[in-house]
Please model this.
Amino acid sequence: MNPAVGAVVINFRDITERKELEAAKDDFLMTAAHQLRAPLTAMRWNLESMFGHEIPKGCKGKLESMYANNQQMIKAVNELLDIAHIIQGKLPNTPEEFDLVARIKKQIAENEDFSKRKKITVTFAADRPKIPVYIDPKHAIDVINNLISNAIKYSENGSTITIGVLTTGDTATMTITDAGIGIPPAEQGKLFTKFFRASNAREVDAQGTGLGLFIVKSYVEGWGGTVHLTSPVTNKKGTKIAITIPIKKGGKI
Amino acid sequence: MKKILLVEDDTTLHTIYREALEPHDIEVTAVTTGKEALEKAKSLAPDLVILDIMLPGGLNGFDVAERLKQDPATASVPLLVLTNLDSEKQSADAVGAAYLVKTNTSLDAIVAKVTELLHI
Model:
């Protein structure tokens, strides 16, 4: 046998097996996440129906803790499902026209409990009162929420987070700047890959899935946009993330 | 009293739906397969059908929805698809059904949606 041809055959088999393994892994991820959703739903609704009744002394805090854990698991399962969909190219995508400025304001308001708990000030400014975009609003909420909640999570108590939107002719750039722990330069290349968490992020919060920024990048690039990271911003501290996305041409908003 | 037909194979959820909806003067009749759903939809004449999608026995929730829409006796009954599959909004739109993803919806939000669909 010609040894060179033998080597080629082995390589082909290797690639095929690897692809099959990858596909099996993605299928497993999707099935596991779907199978987890049903019991998590039952838990969620059972707990919610309990909150409508009188709760014996000593149980309220424990039930609330169970509910928080349930919400955390639902979030993780949803993120796993999202990445399984992204990898398989089967992401549900229902674009709609909406106002980006109003959407950002709404997500800032929804994170207010979290920011107030840490006495963090969130400022917002946009160079136009309304900016029409044409993307799936669910994905937009995921992106904006991920960036705002990350900024709050990794910022010190009492600090300020600055959110801004600047437009050019046909794009809008949203920047989120915090004065938090920053991202070690050596780890920045891996930041947007799935399951990756920066070493200093793990010290602040042991629970993160490492999926949020992978989802952010996948969505934004799917809209024909880009994600740009700067860290540290000043004084060895802080992170600035800028996402640039297309403005809807001839938007009615 | 309004009548709801609940098509859901997870029987632990039957009790949860009942307890949440009965205080709103809504009677819940639950079945677990598509075949039972089609039979009950005729005999019960419900004001709303709540449909899960992944059902045992060969007929899924969308098969049931299509058949209910084709039958003049049940064509006008409003449908609410309540599933754990989050890629089915377009299929739900196609059969004229309201659509919610179970895991991402609070019990209060489900009650609100049901009472809205029943105009109560």
Notes: Chain B touches chain A through 18 residues (CB under 8 Å).
